[in-house]
Amino acid sequence: MEKIIAVVVTYNRLNCLKRVIESLKNQTKQLDRILVVNNGSTDGTAEYLNTLEDIQVVTQENIGGSGGFWRGIKEASNFESDWIWCMDDDVYPRKDCLEKLLIANEKNVGILCPRRIQNNRVFYSECKKINLSNPFKGLHLGELSDEDIVQDKPVSIEGMVFEGPLIKQELVKSIGYPQKDLFIFYDDTDYSYRAIEAGYKVLYVPVAIMDKEYFAKDITRETLVNSQRWKLWYHIRNTSFFVKKHGKNPFFRHFGALGFPFYMIFAILVNLVRNNKYEFSDLQKLFKAYIYGKRGVLGKISF
Q1: Fewer beta carbons within 10 Å, N or C terminal of the chain?
Q2: pTM of the full structure
Q3: For residues 189 and 166, what is the distance between their CA atoms, to the nearest angstrom?
Q4: Pick from 217, 219, 203, 208: nearest CA to 158
Q5: Contact 112, 192 (CB under 8 A)
Q6: Which stretches make up the Glycosyltransferase 2-like domain (predicted)?
Q7: Phi-psi sector, 31: left (phi>0), alpha (psi -120 to 50), beta
Q8: Residue 92 belongs to what H/E stretch?
Q9: Is the dihedral of CA 58, 63, 68, 70 positive or negative?
Q10: How many Å apart are CA 13 and CA 167, to the nearest integer?
């Protein structure tokens, strides 16, 4: 009988967290342990978790989602298990989600990823192919097609998200833990690509379903620029870091992601004209974030 530990990373979403825990307890395939990483929540999360005798809790300062999953997977690795099921506090696995993920397991699989549903439509940011050699193409290639996301057969992917991946303990022993100090963005893509480089498969399993909480519009380049500025700096920095780390040739490692910051510069200039949401000094910050990534300057960004 395979043993499975669930790892949930939470920060100030108490109502969502309660629903996640309830969903985990109601799985048709029973979990052996639920571990919650509380990233310094201040909304009563700690008090609530103290009332749960059957949940293991790890409390730390808010070092972002990347630090949360680093800690959660590290703690889970101390227990005997076959799989570690990772998720944020805003996705709710349906009753048979875990069971259907396990059915999709096959030789050389390292990670199994569920399909996410938001507002009655499929929500996905996974990609089948990551371009790390051709500077004249985008970074994320081969988006999941309409056929991919509704068929019964699993689909091989290279880029995943930390919203429900079932990670084989064997893989963790092989490649280690997620990159701790990215804070947000690209910790999941980096981890799945490390799995690919180590010879493991990463599969998207359409029949295993999670419901995703709705907070805002999809994260696109446009919505990212129009949202909180601090998120943009992390996205730029971590994209630059990922490309430098995994690029397949010297030119791509240094210049492959250049199109992304140029697009952001244009979008910021448009916002300056339209609604004054940005300042000209933000262009300098964007450039610094890009250079931080190339130099491997990680952790919380401060200018």
Answers
A1: N
A2: 0.93
A3: 14
A4: 203
A5: no
A6: 7-125
A7: beta
A8: strand 91-93
A9: negative
A10: 24
